[in-house]
Structure formats: C-alpha cells, structure tokens
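Per reviewer request, we include the raw input and output of the structure prediction for the construct analysed in the revised manuscript.
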Amino acid sequence: MMDHYKLFYWPIPFRGHFIRMILAHVGATWEEPGFEGMARFKDQPVRDKPYPFLAPPVLHDEEADLWLSQLPAISQYLGRKFDLSVDQDQELRLIADASDILFEITRYHGVMMWDRDAWNGFRNTRLPLWLALHERFVVENGVRKGAGFLFGATSIGVGDLTLAALWHIMADRLPGMRAVITGHAPTLMDLADRVAATPAIAAMEAAWADDPIRYCAGQIEKSLFEMLEGDPE
C-alpha cells in the first residue's frame, strides 16, 4: 500500500514545498487541512495538541503513527525512510541554509516590510553571496550543467530536492528572480530545474500553477512583490 501522510502547513509554497517535493518524488499521498483547518490545528491548547509543537510544518506518518515538527527533522526522516539520504551532515547544512535564506528573503518572516534600500542590499549583495556559495557547493559535489546529482549519487536525493524547493520555487514564482539566480549560479539553477521537471514533482507543481498565493502569502508577499516590480529588467 502506498505511504500516506498528513502534512500540517499553510496552503502556500514556501516551507511546505520542501516536504511536498519529497513526498511527490517518492510517490506518497498526503492530506493537508487548508487555511481554516491549519489555524485550528496550530492554535489548540498545548494539552490538546496531538504532538507538542510550536509552529508548522508538522508531519504525521500514519503508517508508523509518528509525528514530527521542524523542517530539518521532517526532511531528514523522509530521507532516511526512502533511502534518499547520501550525506546526512551536508544535507542538514543545506536545509539549514534554506531556512536562513527564507528568513532573509521575507525580512525575518515579516518582522519588517521591505523598503527599497534594504531590498537593494539583499538583492545585490546578500543574495549573490548565497548563490555563489551554493554554486560552488554543487560543483564541488558532483554536479555539472545538464547532469549529475549531489555527492556523486546516480539519482535524486534529499540535498537535490532541498535545493530545488529553495531555488526553483523562488525562480518560478518571484518575477525576475530566475535571471538573478541563473546569472550567479547557472549550475545550481540547472540542477534545481532538472529536479523540478521530473514527472511527479512537475505534476505536483502544476496543481499550484493558478494559485493566487505565489510564494509566502500575506503582507510579507505583498511587500516582496512591490520590491520585485521596481527591480531593473
């Protein structure tokens, strides 16, 4: 029987797609509660929660009756379960990098909204630094344009899926970001796109194509798009 899960996360791409890509890649099925169900699940008193967590994502592996929160823990659990993990230490590093980058691109998860000076600093300095680091990482770990996966593996692993969820989604859903990413990290962008183009992940992504929420939702997304609309071509 195909593995079935419940993923408790807001119906937006952002962190959720890191887990969705893994589940889609391995052929698992899963349910999600939607905005209202997610709000009820998150806001339960601690004593009533099925698992002690502060914030989503949360995953319930129904067959194993195992609950997990925190993106790194969930990704590494699924990587081990489905034999997708090649180098757990380096994969954890990439997941941690991704969390940092999401934190930065949403200006600390919306603690502040973007202004033009701050955005220019991120887009022109901080983001290129992250891209240069990941470009070097993938090249030094067995990837070249058009071929190869991380750590010399012959198939897609957790590290490749993590980079696809981070950089392909950013390039695909944020106007103008593909040119920035490709310009600084062509091998990285090629890897992310190759992973995202595999049939199961492409089908999962197609289901989100017309969703009005493009990336991270709310005022954070509005602020981000205001900056992107003012970027040079």
